[in-house]
Recover the amino acids of this structure.
């Protein structure tokens, strides 16, 4: 014990020196092992081991191609109407009724009536010549009614006071048959060149145009006594009457497209 007490410092120093010697001998092996480990890690990252590729499974792709060989029949018509849906039109019902596309638009407007418009000319009165004036000649009151005129003021009956040879915008009084104060016949030349005969018992009358009444079922819409050139609004779109005959009406859109509508009733 006395030896240990006297020489413990030397003993500890010797143990430390021995440990350092062992560490010095072991250190190169440790460095070499760490270096090899780093090299192996680098090699595994830069040159990884890969598995050989196997044949790809094309079963799903082959089945898809086989299905594509058979044409797919897709019906977008009735009752699906995916591409060409039916047109909804607002009606007085709630909810609105559904109308097929072929039963809407200007081609489904119904012409319920067509009425003739006349040009009428009558001999209303003969005013004898002034006896005090030798140069005086009889004058005649001839009335003209143009029902087909564009303006309402021109549609009313209008009298003209005229004598032989005089001319206005409607006619020229060409000659008088019989006694001038009591003519049996008056010959007029109309502005379009037609020659007509008029007397008190037999007025002149011809058809100069027509007006029509129409009906549109999807909107419960009525147009009464429509004349040439009058506008119609159908489903929010503007149209115009461009022609009316005794048995049909022609509608036109702003793009120039036209629809001919046959009358459902004879002219009145």
């Amino acid at each position: 014990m006395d030896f240990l007490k006297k020489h413990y410092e030397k003993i500890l120093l010797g143990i430390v020196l021995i440990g350092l010697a062992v560490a010095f001998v072991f250190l190169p092996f440790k460095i070499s092992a760490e270096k090899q480990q780093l090299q192996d890690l680098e090699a595994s990252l830069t040159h990884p081991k890969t598995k050989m590729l196997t044949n790809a499974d094309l079963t799903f792709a082959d089945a898809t191609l086989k299905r594509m060989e058979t044409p797919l029949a897709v019906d977008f018509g009735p009752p699906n109407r995916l591409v060409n849906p039916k047109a909804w039109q607002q009606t007085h019902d709630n909810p609105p009724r559904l109308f097929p596309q072929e039963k809407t638009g200007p081609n489904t407007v119904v012409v319920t009536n067509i009425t003739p418009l006349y040009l009428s000319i009558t001999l209303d009165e003969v005013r004898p010549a002034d006896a005090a004036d030798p140069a005086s000649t009889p004058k005649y009151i001839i009335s003209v009614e143009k029902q087909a005129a564009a303006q309402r003021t021109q549609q009313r009956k209008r009298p003209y006071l005229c004598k032989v040879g005089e001319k206005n915008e409607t006619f020229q009084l060409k000659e008088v048959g019989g006694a001038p104060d009591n003519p049996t016949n008056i010959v007029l030349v109309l502005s379009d060149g037609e020659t007509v005969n008029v007397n008190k018992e037999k007025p002149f009358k011809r058809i100069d145009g027509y007006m029509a009444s129409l009906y549109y079922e999807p909107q419960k819409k009525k147009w009464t006594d429509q004349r040439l050139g009058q506008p119609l609004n159908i489903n929010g779109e503007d149209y115009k009457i461009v022609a009316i005959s005794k048995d049909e009406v022609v509608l036109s859109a702003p793009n120039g497209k036209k629809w001919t509508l046959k009358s459902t009733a004879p002219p009145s």
In short: The CA atoms of residues 171 and 190 lie 4 Å apart. The longest strand covers residues 110-127.
